[in-house]
Design brief:
Strand content: 15-25%
Largest sheet: 5 strands, mixed
Distance between the termini: 55 Å
Strand order of the largest sheet: 5-6-7-11-8
Helix content: 25-40%
Structural class: alpha/beta
Length: 393
């Protein structure tokens, strides 16, 4: 259960130790932070306390969802904004601290405005300014509802129930979550493509933001596939970045926005999700270097987790007619771009067998699902240099 109470002082939150277990100094550790869902819960707690007692707390403490309890974290939030609305509703605000994670909502003010609701209705939710509304099926929240995910809804509902019992209040309230500037922030997220319009989403399954976590990106990939499937699309297109996406838009101008998935380095996350949630067709587009690593069998294309094997590239080039001198130059190359330039100058189409080998890697990851796969390779300028049979360039 998620519980909340006003408290007089802060408690330890997400601080990390500055020493190794053995007593020696440790390298600095990244600081975790709090999700928009945790911040909305804290704001709701403060506003409900004011609604029930007429007084705003200066700080609130929340207990995170059960899955997180083993961390022992009971974060404390300073209430950054308190106001009584002209109609008697209470509004409280929490400034989101995402820790050391590069989260677009870091520093955003998360506001909860609470009105009394009709007796027996419990807690209902509305999207205020800066919080999106779901418009497409396939997400955890149905179309027409505020983009407040199930766990944050549960956190807020349980918080209100707990406080209502303590403060002798019926607990029937309308909770409106707002984020000033949220509509602009949402343009830097996947929300418009997923059909979440008007603002950001209130997210989080644990309440904690883990710095530089891959989990949020992978979650977005999965939700992108869900939305495409719910819309009945017969194809999704995974792109490694904005350049390859722009290229694919030019090649497939009729492809709707919600078929395009910014998979980044997580080709494996996309392919493995399609194994269990298939669509008829997958197209993957990316730069030459990224797709060389995919062709080698890597499913995580980040530079810290996979590298270009120039010896294998040299062998691939030899297999399509490269002479000994060119093969040696490829094996000794410093970058994938250098390989592409060497082969281009020699009139050798190295990108095509790379695309074909990348298809084989993806097919193995998707199997046994029946998904037709094509790959398009781009150069640094975003020009297509090779594609498999299903795509014309």
């Amino acid at each position: 259960m998620t519980t909340t109470r006003a408290i007089p002082e802060t408690l330890p939150g997400n601080q990390t130790s500055g020493r190794k277990p053995g007593g020696g100094p440790a390298a600095p550790r990244l600081r975790s932070g709090w999700t928009t869902g945790a911040c909305a819960t804290a704001a709701t707690a403060a506003a409900f306390t004011a609604l029930a007692t007429g007084r705003f707390p200066e700080r609130v403490e929340i207990t995170l969802p059960r899955a997180t309890l083993r961390t022992g974290q009971r974060p404390v939030f300073d209430v950054a904004e308190r106001r009584v609305e002209p109609d008697g509703a209470m509004t409280a605000g929490i400034v989101k601290d995402a820790g050391d994670d590069p989260d677009v909502t870091h520093g955003a003010l998360i506001l909860a405005t609470l009105h009394p609701g009709p007796r027996g209705t419990g807690v209902t939710f509305r999207a205020g300014a800066g919080v999106g509304t779901v418009t497409r099926p396939g997400l955890p929240i149905p179309p027409g509802e505020p983009a407040i995910n199930p766990v944050p809804r549960r956190m807020m509902t349980e918080t209100v129930a707990e406080l209502a019992s303590l403060l002798d209040h019926p607990g029937d309230v309308v909770v409106t979550i707002s984020v000033p500037g949220g509509a602009a922030l949402a343009e830097r997220t996947w929300n418009p493509r997923l059909g979440i319009l008007g603002g950001i989403s209130i997210l989080g399954t644990t309440g904690v933001v883990v710095p530089y976590s891959c989990a949020a990106w992978i979650h977005s990939i999965h939700r992108g596939v869900d939305v495409a499937r719910a819309a009945g699309l017969d194809m999704v297109a995974g792109c490694t970045g904005s350049t390859s996406e722009a290229m694919l838009r030019r090649l497939l101008p009729d492809l709707p926005d919600h078929a395009l998935i910014d998979m980044g380095d997580f080709a494996g996350a996309l392919a493995k999700y399609l194994r269990h949630h298939p669509v008829p067709r997958l197209v993957v587009a990316g730069g030459f270097a990224k797709l060389v690593k995919l062709a080698q069998g890597a499913l995580d294309l980040h530079s810290s987790r996979s590298t270009v094997d120039f010896g294998r590239l040299a062998g691939l080039a030899a297999g399509i007619g490269a002479g000994a001198e060119l093969t040696a130059a490829i094996a000794a190359a410093n970058t994938a771009k250098q390989v592409l330039d060497l082969c281009s100058a020699a009139g050798l189409d190295i990108a095509r067998p790379v695309a074909e080998a990348a298809v084989a890697t993806l097919a193995a990851a998707v199997a046994p699902a029946a998904v037709a796969i094509d790959v398009v390779v781009a150069d640094r300028a975003g020009k297509p240099v090779a594609a498999t049979a299903g795509i014309r360039i």
